[in-house]
Every structure is written in structure tokens, then in C-alpha cells.
Amino acid sequence: MDSPLLQEIPILKLAEVHSKPDKQAMAYGTAGFRGKASKMDHIFFRMGMLAVLRSKMLKSAIGVMVTASHNPVLDNGVKLIDPCGEMLVESWEVIATGLANASNDDLVKELKKIVAKENIDLSQTATILLARDTRPSSLSLSNAVQDGISALGGTCRNYGLLTTPQLHYIVSCYNDGVKDADEDTYYKWFSSAFKTLVNEPPVNSNVTVDCANGVGAPKLNKLYEHIGANVIDIIIHNDGEGCGKLNEKCGADYVKIQQRAPIGLNMEPFHRYASFDGDADRIVYYSLDCDCNFVLLDGDKIASLITLYIKELLDESKVDVKLGMVQTAYANGNSTRYVTDTLNVMVACARTGVKHLHHKAVEFDIGVYFEANGHGTVTVKEECSNVIERAAKDDKLPAKQKDAAIKLKTFLDVINKTVGDAMSDMLAVEAILHAKGWSVREWAQLYTDLPNRQLKVTVADRTVIRTTDSERRTTSPEGLQEEIDKLVALFPNGRSFVRPSGTEDVVRVYAESDTQEHADSLAKKVSILIYEKAGGVGEKPKEESA
Ligand SMILES: CC(=O)N[C@H]1[C@@H](OP(=O)(O)O)O[C@H](CO)[C@@H](O)[C@@H]1O
Ligand SMILES: [Mg+2]
């Protein structure tokens, strides 16, 4: 008998509306598909169909998020969310790429191939949870996703505007049996956990948040309404209502890379500032010191603060579980040293891309993971949550011990464990500063960042660079690593590595050393080496004359 998929006519009719331009190929990368919005309609349609197939296969709801995060406003992108709220499994990234690149004529054949290979029972129902960011193209592209969903007979719950982490959270709630989970469920959960942590006395301090003119602004506003201005004072900047453009000279990525304030923000010393990115899954903090120097508190500083706090509560509660932290090679060397040597907590290194960090983090009972750019969260094993919960209810424990367990339990409730979440991470940081009675100054002084520099080199084919050891060393081109080692040895506390970017057509160079001059010089020397050894194109990087 024909499977429902063989009702090819409706698929083909819709596929004609969302037709793929010739010769266009895209890959599902670390951040899903991303590119110029005007050239991607067919990808969104096809991802709607793919989400239906995955939902049928796993007999669970699948999320589809329409966003291009921190990219310019004319870009867009799409990513799928797996049932527990995690990123799409890697093996399906390959399948997604195959479906996206199939010619219009081969589309049905490609769908049949997936069904056969993955052994998908098409009689299963499919539920897709869809949301989008505030880009001008997002509405029509989410309509294309909806068309893809209906082409294969799936049911779509469209949540409209959401931040990426809100959708991840809702997907996990839905598959946990909370079928009516929505945006309000999110606000109620996180605001109530925060208020339990900070109720006596309230935080009563203020933080200014640059929302990159993105979806984070209206959503942070709603979260703020649930928390109440009597608990914390949140001032929203770049809320998308003025003439500022999405991610233009603002947002977490801009602030981290430029190490400066977003547009239009007049900073005052010691006040606390934070920036979200365009879909609010990244956050960095910053401040001015007494000499008006810009002080960045990036993903490494946030991770260090969270690890410190969890470690203290574990020690106080005497709950014996394994805490670990996960970073990438981009983590500042002094953050790694601080957590390893001062906090005595194990640090693991993962490849760039949050899914790699997430996978490593779940190996610990409690895993704190962050990319230096501010994307990260905390994972907690279920058995570990149970141990903490039991201690929090154990009347036989000394009061101090039990109290610490209660605090730890409530603190972990403030965390969106499915994925890095700017709003939930912000609440976590604010709660810790409140608990410790710290201003941003004490936090900044946990350790001093080693001066560092990131550069990009354009080469004809960036895949000639191959790496090992979580991207910290190269295996090809031959002899390159030995040359890098020689350059690194010239600089005190020198460290440098290179890797092909997964999102841009460049090779990234990272260097750190004891002074900014040294870090800059090492980064330059390594860039020149890459240009020479890995087929550089365009203008050759030059060493600045002394
Ligand atoms: C050095 C750096 O910040 N790299 C970013 C960037 O990846 P690249 O593979 O380096 O282009 O985009 C990724 C997706 O947003 C993010 O996860 C990652 O941290
Ligand atoms: Mg983002």
C-alpha cells in the first residue's frame, strides 16, 4: 500500500511555491542553516518537513526556531530542537543538509530515502513547536516552515515570537507531559525560582541590559513584570523600539569582540551592564572601573562565578557529587587556572560549538559550560538533583548543611538546563552577586584576564587546516604545529591556536600572552604563518613595525 508520503501531489505543489534556486548548496552547521534571508525560503519549507519526519520517528514533539542570532538583520536561519530541548543530534545534521540541497525534482526521492534509512513509521502523528525572532523576514519564513509541516501532515503549534532558549525550554516541558507549556510557563518558573532565592532582602540594585534590538527586549520585559520592580531594577536598552537596528553596533557579540559599550550607552563607573545577542541565548556583562577602563565579564567570568557558587554550596551542604566545568580553547588561560587551581574543580576542554560543550558537561553530575562569548548553562544529572533534593528535605542534617542544600536546589531551578539562556543566566548571576553581597568589582577580581587577541585569516580552502586535542593543536598542514610552537615559545605565558571557522569562510587565530602588545604580536606572527603555510589569499597580514 502507498505510504502517506507517496501522496506526492500536495508536496510537489507546495515545493513549487518554495522552490530551490539552482546551484545553491548550504550546510546545517553549528548554528543550523544561516545565510541571506532572501535566498533561504526553500530551506525553511524543507526543515518543516524534516521536523515532521523526526517527530514521527521519535514519537515526540520537535522544535523549529527561526532566527539568525547575532547575524545582521538581513540574514536568517533555522534550527531544529530535539525532544529534551537539546540541539539536533549530529547524525541528522547530515540528513538536513542532504534534504536542503536536493534538487526540486529529487525532493520526494530524498524524503523517501530518509524514511527508509531511518525506518520511520509514517502513520505516526507529528507535533512541531515553532517560534521565531523579530527579524523582518522571520514571519514569512516561519510560514514556509508551516507549509513544510502541513505538506507532510504534521501538527504545528506556533508560539510566534520567542527567544531561542524559551522554545528549547517549552519543547522539553511539552515532551515531559506539560502539553499546555507556553511562554507564561517559562516566566512563572524562572521568576518564582529567582524570587525564592533573593526574597530576603530583595536584590534592590539595578542592571542595564542591551537587548541588541532583538526579541530579548519584549521577553525580558515580560520576565521583569513577573519578578517585580521591588525585587530587582532592570533597565532595558536597545529594545528595538527606536531607530537602532538588530545587532548593529550592539549586542553580546559586538561587545565581546570590540570590548566596548554598545551604541548609545553612556556608562557610569561600577554600574552593572549586560548585553544579550539577537535571539537572547548569549549574555556578557561589563562595567567601567574607577579609571573608566572598560571591564568585560564574559562567558569565562560568568562560568567561574557560577562554578565558585555551586562549589561553595556543595562544600557547605556536604553533598558529594562531581562538579566540573567545560570550556573551549578560546577560554582565557587565567579562567582555567582559577577554576582548576583556586577552586579545585576539574576543567574539560571541548571543540567550539555549544553542543560539544553540552555533551561533555553531562558527563559530570553538575557540569557548568560556557563559551567565552557568553553562551552557556549548567547541566545536572537526574540522580544528582535527587540527592540535592533529599538533603534539602533532611531534618536530621545540621541547619547550615540543610540550608545550603535548599539554596543549591533553588539556584539550580533558576538555570535553563536545556541550553544557554541570556535571561536565565542573568538571573543566576544576579542571584549570586546578591547572595555574596558582591558588586561587579569583586566579581571582576576573581582573576585578571590574560591579554589576548583574535584574528581572522582568509585562505583559499580553510579545510586544509585540521586540528586535534579539542582544536588546540593542528595536524595539517604538515609542520605547521611545530612552527606555531616555536612562535609561542618566544612569548611569556604564550598560547596560540588556529582552527577553521565553522560559520565563516576564514581561519581563526587566537593568541594570549603576558601583555597586550605580546598577545597582538604573537597573533600577528601566527597569522602570517597561516597565510604562508595554508594558502592565504588577499592581502598578507603584516607585522607592525616597533
Ligand atoms: C570563536 C567564536 O566565538 N566562535 C563562535 C562561532 O563559531 P566559529 O566556528 O568559530 O565560526 O559561532 C558559533 C555559533 O554561534 C559559536 O558557537 C562559536 O563560539
Ligand atoms: Mg544567539
Automatic annotation (TrEMBL):
This is Phosphoacetylglucosamine mutase. It catalyses: N-acetyl-alpha-D-glucosamine 1-phosphate = N-acetyl-D-glucosamine 6-phosphate. PROSITE patterns: PGM_PMM (PS00710), PUA (PS50890). Transmembrane segments: none annotated. Catalyzes the conversion of GlcNAc-6-P into GlcNAc-1-P during the synthesis of uridine diphosphate/UDP-GlcNAc, a sugar nucleotide critical to multiple glycosylation pathways including protein N- and O-glycosylation. The keyword Nuclease does not apply. Belongs to the phosphohexose mutase family. PANTHER family: PHOSPHOACETYLGLUCOSAMINE MUTASE. It comes from the Eukaryota. Residues 476-526 form the Alpha-D-phosphohexomutase C-terminal domain. Binds 1 Mg(2+) ion per subunit. Residues 57-89, 104-173 form the Alpha-D-phosphohexomutase alpha/beta/alpha domain. Its EC number is 5.4.2.3. Keywords: Isomerase, Magnesium, Metal-binding, Phosphoprotein. The keyword Isomerase applies. Residues 181-284, 298-438 form the Phosphoacetylglucosamine mutase AMG1 domain. Pathway: Nucleotide-sugar biosynthesis; UDP-N-acetyl-alpha-D-glucosamine biosynthesis; N-acetyl-alpha-D-glucosamine 1-phosphate from alpha-D-glucosamine 6-phosphate (route I): step 2/2. Gene3D superfamilies: Alpha-D-Glucose-1,6-Bisphosphate, subunit A, domain 3 (3.40.120.10), Alpha-D-phosphohexomutase, C-terminal domain (3.30.310.50). InterPro entries: A-D-PHexomutase_a/b/a-I (IPR005844), A-D-PHexomutase_a/b/a-I/II/III (IPR016055), A-D-PHexomutase_C (IPR005843), A-D-PHexomutase_C_sf (IPR036900), A-D-PHexomutase_CS (IPR016066), AMG1_II (IPR049023), AMG1_III (IPR049022), PAGM (IPR016657). Coiled coil: none annotated. Its cofactor is Mg(2+). It comes from Clavelina lepadiformis.
